[in-house]
Specification:
Blueprint (H helix, E strand, L loop, with lengths): L10 H14 L16 E9 L10 E6 L5 E5 L5 E7 L8 E6 L2 E6 L12 E7 L2 E4 L4 H9 L2
Parallel strand pairs: 1-7
Antiparallel strand pairs: 1-4, 2-3, 2-5, 5-6, 7-8
């Protein structure tokens, strides 16, 4: 029998190895948590424009979790619009996130009600020239418009 060192494997690989081991042993595999559900994501979206208000297509956008250093990337479309979905659970309410768009950056907290598992979680951050502005109140409507495109 070959031994496998789990501490040097990526988390996803460890989960697969454990699941296969459980199957091999005839045990039931526990249900995986549904990470597509609201309580496992935080969406950051917005527009990137130059100082004159023109959309900037192709700008690399990244949201970094300050606590862990994990980054999630996106890119602006022809309208300057971007969407980045961050894996963030209930325990991460108020965690500091850093949005980078080109050479600009803004740090803001992930604001949401950890007990609400029905409402989408997220914020809107717009970039205009060298200025970045968070607009959490505009998040829900902007997300709705994006989803009905």
């Amino acid at each position: 029998m070959k031994l496998i060192c789990l501490t040097r494997m990526p988390v996803a690989m460890v989960a697969i190895v454990l699941a296969l081991g459980a199957l091999h042993a005839g045990a039931e595999v526990p249900r995986a948590r549904a990470e597509h559900e609201v309580q496992y994501r935080y969406t950051v979206l917005g527009y990137v424009r130059d100082a004159a208000g023109r959309a900037r297509e192709g700008v690399q956008v990244e949201v970094v979790r300050e606590r862990t250093g994990l980054g999630y990337r996106g890119v602006t479309d022809a309208k300057g619009f971007y969407v980045v979905v961050v894996r963030l659970g209930d325990e991460s309410a108020e965690e500091a996130l850093r949005l980078r768009a080109g050479s600009r950056a803004l740090v803001f907290p992930a604001r949401f009600d950890a007990t609400d598992h029905t409402r989408e979680r997220g914020t809107r951050v717009d970039v205009a020239g060298d200025r970045m502005t968070e607009q959490p109140a505009a998040f829900a409507e902007t997300l709705r418009q994006f989803l009905v495109r």
